[in-house]
Each structure stands twice: as structure tokens, then as C-alpha cells.
Amino acid sequence: MSASTRISYGVLAFTIILAGFLHLGAPLLVVLFSYFALRQLYYLTKRKWLALVLFIVVVTGIAAAAVYLYPCHHPCVARCG
User: How far apart are CA 26 and CA 14, in angstroms?
Assistant: First the structure.
């Protein structure tokens, strides 16, 4: 195993341990799944810019759906309609 590989594994282990201590597991999972999605989109399209545009469209669509479906059930919202 090369030195750069050992350092890479060390940084990854440190990041996972730090996320556990700081209770940041959910954001770490979001970042890891986002990286996975970007890699898969790049594998399918073979173009980085197209993969990034598709990823941004998907994330924007998910965010818009969350905003559209969520507001009437939150206690801070004064009224629906």
C-alpha cells in the first residue's frame, strides 16, 4: 500500500470518527450519496458538465417538491392557503 493510499484511508477514518463525535452523520451521508450520484451520472453521460447539470436539476426538483409538499403541516406556518 502506498503512502498516499494510507493517508487517504486515514483522512477518511478521521472524518467518519469526527462526524460521529460531532453528531454530523446525516450531512456526511448526504455528501457521500451526492458523490455517488455524481459519479453514476458521469458514468452514464461521459461528460462532466452534463452530469453536473443533471445533478443540479435533480436536487432542485427534490427541493421544490419538499417545499411544495411541506408548508401546511409545520407549526410555525400561520395559515395555509
Answer: 16
Rg (CA), the chain: 18
The type of residue at 32 is L
pTM of this prediction? 0.70
One-letter-per-residue 3-state SS of the chain: CCHHHHHHHHHHHHHHHHHHHCCCHHHHHHHHHHHHHHHHHHHHHCCHHHHHHHHHHHHHHHHHHHHHHCHHHCCCCCCCC
pLDDT digits (tens, 9 = 90+) for 39-77: 999 999 999 999 999 999 999 999 998 888 776 666 665
What does the angle CA 7 – CA 5 – CA 14 come to, to the nearest 5 degrees? 35
On whether the CB atoms of residues 55 and 41 are closer than 8 A, the answer is: yes
Contacts of 58 (CB under 8 A, 6+ apart): 37
